[in-house]
């Protein structure tokens, strides 16, 4: 097909603004699926995506469309995840497009991630079509949202499309607007091959399926391709377009979006952002923008039953075939046995991996307290990166410490300003700014330590704003901090799985929280159990589980008081001996309880 008849575009939006529903209506309007085959969230393939109503893994589909002028067009829809954890994947997907539909809820208006995704699209110099969705809602106010788009986003209000993705109203007009306003792709099929990888997933029969945009040149089955990042070469087995199923083609040429199968064994070989070229006729340089995806949140995963360690090993191997951003290495704990130290892109990514392991592989898990990667500068001038409290260096050798900071953007109704500012100050926020993007709403920006955000920040924000607050963040740099290792002692024994790296000012608060939670979960014994929080040899928090009391004097009906005293002294000595040799079994739910924040 000629380049002038191709349109490549993405749909970008804040979470729950109707992105997947609009994609469903576009697919139906282009007659890609019959009513009998149709199901909601057609492009979302995982159960978790359907239940939560979010897109975790981006999908692509080619839509054949006949415009009103009679011309046949090929519309390549590159669907993107909406959550901030997957922002790099979104940026690569946008690089493969010429335009984007900026979807805005007709009742909620512009949110934090609406702005973040708009800026990402502008950086890639995309043509943007603003689309107001959910106009069928009783609370919809399209006129006010149109004014917001013009005043706050600086986009032309004349190009705004009004649609209801649920009912299908306005979708046909939107398709015409896409054909009219979005530019066709550029590229020369006669130049050396330049293909941008924007996604990859694993098929157990065919290997890695590479989703790519052909910038220049062409590729066909039988060609030998070269990955410019790791210089590995593969022979192409099949190329094609994404319909609801894969549709093989003779070749892919400049301007097209499609897939390449080349018998690649792991997804990690085909990293998003990498450039594919031909081995015998390579391009001059790789396409710009590639970077390694680094994990920002770390947590150890242990099976509840030690017998399931081998099953967990196999499950993680299979998951990394589909998700190259998940990193893991072997770990062990005296309390929990053998497990793995895993790196995640964010808290949502952590939750998704945990849920997939428990559902798809039927392995019940325990996760340790999430942490981030800290920099420790030692007295000898060296620097080490630590994400696991077990590797905390000797405090006498530490010269200074640093922790990562983020820039948080929070959009809230005006009435919640005081509560949100208090929350940010509690979490060691600094350099706060705010302005009014529209009447009654405030955009609040604040620089926060990443470690304070991954704990329970988002839950607290949603709670204090009654669900109206929206949150987005971007990583800044490492800044000086005063970090300490908080140990939890149960009956004077350190429980390594409960150790945390925390800022000194937060240590007592975290210690009290852990002690109180453990007190509620650990069953009482015949002796007193002391639960303590400690920094080195200094106890900073403590609670005590009272002993179960047996009435040893019940059999004494009379006689001298000294008989009872002897029995009580004998009991006291027995309990003291029991405390020194007795073991306290910590139930599995106690480890989970420490992870939960206080109910506020």
Present the secondary structure layout:
Layout: E1 6-13, H1 19-29, H2 47-52, E2 60-66, E3 72-79, H3 87-95, E4 99-105, H4 112-123, E5 127-133, H5 142-152, E6 161-162, H6 171-181, E7 194-203, E8 207-216, E9 218-220, E10 224-227, E11 233-235, E12 238-242, E13 246-249, E14 251-253, E15 257-261, E16 275-278, E17 297-303, H7 309-322, E18 327-333, E19 337-344, H8 347-360, E20 365-367, E21 374-378, E22 383-386, E23 398-413, H9 417-426, E24 430-438, E25 441-449, H10 450-464, E26 470-481, E27 483-490, E28 493-494, E29 500-503, H11 504-521, E30 529-535, E31 538-545, H12 561-581, H13 588-595
Parallel strand pairs: 1-3, 1-4, 4-5, 5-6
Antiparallel strand pairs: 2-3, 7-8, 7-16, 8-15, 9-14, 10-11, 10-16, 12-13, 12-15, 17-19, 17-20, 18-19, 21-22, 21-23, 23-25, 23-26, 24-25, 27-28, 27-29, 27-30, 30-31
InterPro entries: EF-4, EFG_II, EFG_III/V, EFG_V-like, EFTu-like_2, G_TR_CS, LepA_C_sf, LepA_CTD
Subcellular location: Cell membrane
Family: Belongs to the GTP-binding elongation factor family. LepA subfamily. Belongs to the TRAFAC class translation factor GTPase superfamily. Classic translation factor GTPase family. LepA subfamily.
């Amino acid at each position: 097909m000629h380049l002038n008849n191709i349109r490549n575009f993405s749909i970008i939006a804040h979470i729950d603004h109707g992105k997947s529903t609009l994609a469903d209506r576009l697919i139906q309007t282009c007659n890609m699926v019959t009513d009998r085959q149709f199901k909601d969230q057609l492009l979302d393939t995982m159960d978790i995506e359907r239940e939560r109503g979010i897109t975790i893994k981006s999908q692509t589909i080619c839509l054949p469309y006949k415009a009103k002028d009679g011309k046949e067009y090929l519309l390549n829809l590159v669907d993107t995840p909406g959550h901030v954890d997957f922002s790099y994947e979104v940026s690569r997907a946008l690089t493969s497009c010429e335009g984007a539909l900026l979807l805005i809820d007709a009742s909620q208006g512009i949110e934090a991630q609406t702005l973040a995704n708009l800026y990402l699209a502008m950086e890639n110099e995309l043509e943007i079509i603003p689309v107001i969705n959910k106009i069928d809602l009783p609370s919809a106010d399209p006129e006010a949202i149109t004014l917001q788009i013009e005043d706050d986003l600086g986009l032309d209000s004349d190009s705004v499309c009004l649609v209801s993705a649920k009912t299908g109203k306005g979708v046909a007009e939107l398709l015409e607007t896409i054909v009219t306003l979005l530019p066709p792709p550029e590229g020369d099929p006669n130049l050396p091959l330049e293909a941008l990888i924007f996604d990859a997933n694993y098929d157990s029969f065919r290997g890695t399926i590479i989703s790519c945009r052909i910038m220049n040149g062409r590729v066909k089955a039988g060609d030998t391709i070269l990955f410019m990042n790791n210089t590995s070469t593969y022979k192409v087995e099949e190329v094609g377009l994404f319909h609801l199923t894969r549709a093989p083609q003779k070749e892919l040429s400049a301007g097209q979006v499609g897939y390449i199968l080349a018998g690649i064994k792991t997804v990690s070989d085909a990293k998003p952002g990498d450039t594919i070229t031909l081995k015998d006729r390579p391009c001059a340089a790789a396409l710009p923008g590639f970077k390694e995806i680094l994990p920002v949140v770390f947590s150890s995963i242990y099976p509840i039953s030690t017998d399931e360690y081998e099953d967990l090993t196999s499950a993680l191997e299979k998951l990394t075939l589909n998700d190259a951003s998940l990193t893991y290495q072997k770990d062990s704990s005296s309390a929990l046995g053998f497990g793995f130290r895993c790196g995640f892109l964010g808290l949502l990514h952590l939750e998704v991996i945990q849920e997939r392991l428990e559902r798809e592989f039927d392995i019940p898990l325990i996760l340790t307290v999430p942490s981030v990667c800290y920099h420790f500068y030692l007295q000898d001038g060296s620097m080490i990166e630590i994400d696991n409290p077990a590797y905390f260096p000797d405090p006498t050798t530490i010269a200074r410490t640093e922790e990562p900071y983020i820039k948080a953007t929070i959009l809230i109704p005006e009435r919640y300003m005081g509560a949100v500012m208090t929350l940010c100050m509690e979490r060691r926020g600094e350099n706060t700014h705010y302005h009014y993007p529209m009447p009654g709403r405030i955009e609040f920006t604040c620089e926060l330590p990443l470690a304070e955000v991954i704990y329970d920040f988002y839950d607290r924000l949603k709670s204090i704003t009654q669900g109206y607050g929206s949150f987005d963040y971007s990583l800044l740099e490492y800044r000086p901090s005063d970090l300490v290792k908080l140990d939890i002692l149960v009956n004077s024994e350190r429980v390594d799985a409960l150790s945390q790296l925390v800022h000194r000012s937060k240590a007592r608060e975290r210690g009290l929280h852990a002690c109180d939670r453990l007190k509620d979960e650990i069953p009482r014994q015949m002796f007193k159990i002391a639960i303590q929080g400690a920094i080195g040899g200094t106890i900073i928090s403590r609670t005590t589980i009272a002993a179960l009391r047996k009435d040893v004097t019940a059999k004494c009906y009379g006689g001298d008081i000294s008989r009872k005293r002897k029995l009580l002294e004998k009991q006291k000595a027995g309990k003291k001996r029991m405390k020194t040799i007795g073991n306290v079994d910590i139930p599995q739910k106690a480890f989970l309880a420490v992870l939960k924040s206080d109910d506020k």
